[in-house]
Amino acid sequence: MDPELEGWWQVISLAVYSGYERMALEPFFRSERSRVAHVARAHGGFRQGCSEGHAATLERVFTRDGLVHEQAGAEVALPSPLPEDPARPPAGPPWKPSAVGEPSAVVQAVVAVAERRYGSAEDAPDAVGWLLDEEFAYGEPYGSTGEFLGDLADAVAHQGTCTDTTVEAVPFLMALVGDDNVPPGSRLVLLGHLLRLAASERAAAVSLADRVTALGGAWEESAAAYLTRQAIGRELPTLLSRWEDESDAARFALAALTALCGTRDRRAVSGSATLPAPAGSSRADVVSLVAALLSDDREGWVSALDRLASWLPGVAEKAAGPQVDLRSLGLALLPDLVFDDVASGITAEREMP
Question: What average pLDDT score do residues 188-195 get?
Fold first, then answer.
């Protein structure tokens, strides 16, 4: 099913475990994934994915067609005691609460921006036109703001994949983030979506680094992802001009977005140093990474990644690949690191029945 791998060998391991809570085994599984990736690279290959399932299902569907070697009874003994994930540093100070707003009010604010920019569905990008469609206006109301913002994000980039439609819709998303009629919490959620769009190709490059190397290729960024990031960068100065009026959480997200777009802006560089991130907190390590990427400080981002890897095993797992560019890794990590933090200050409001 994968033409690029025609003629390659595939190695499959079928693991069955019982008597343990799934999450208790995660540190062990993570170490096994890293070990398998190391073995694969040593043989000129790469580890491609992993999955889990119920033993009865796996044993029923596992096919031995083409199998050339099977070691009966092979077993990897679980270590005793099981490894544990490292302790996470304390979080930073709480953010000022940011409400997402009631669904109907947010929908009205978003539609109002669409009407001002495009006038009608015929003149709007494909990802925006549905907001101006008569059927949408008379449709069922949303039960939560999160559901509406999720639909909007999916319309712009289905499953996070950048396309020509995404590029066309970026100015609209940026306008929403800069519109005071959109509640602060919803603006933060939209900033989170923009972070993921700007980092989408970096994340793919990190994930596929071993495969690209094994196949003798070179990573090429898709045109749509590149143009999406460029489009965000063009609109970013307008948002950064509001820096003094934004909350600390929004400034944190804007600084990360500035780093992802490669934009040089003194407000983001100097402003990141004033964010509430006391030494020894998990936020301090993320802010250090953002600041180093903004300043193009290689020593700084390598040091920040080392600290993050000391308490985030997933970072250590990604950084273990010798083909992974550490700057790309740092940029790829920003959306989750930043939004997971600022999301703690976002408060949801549901429509009253």
Answer: 97
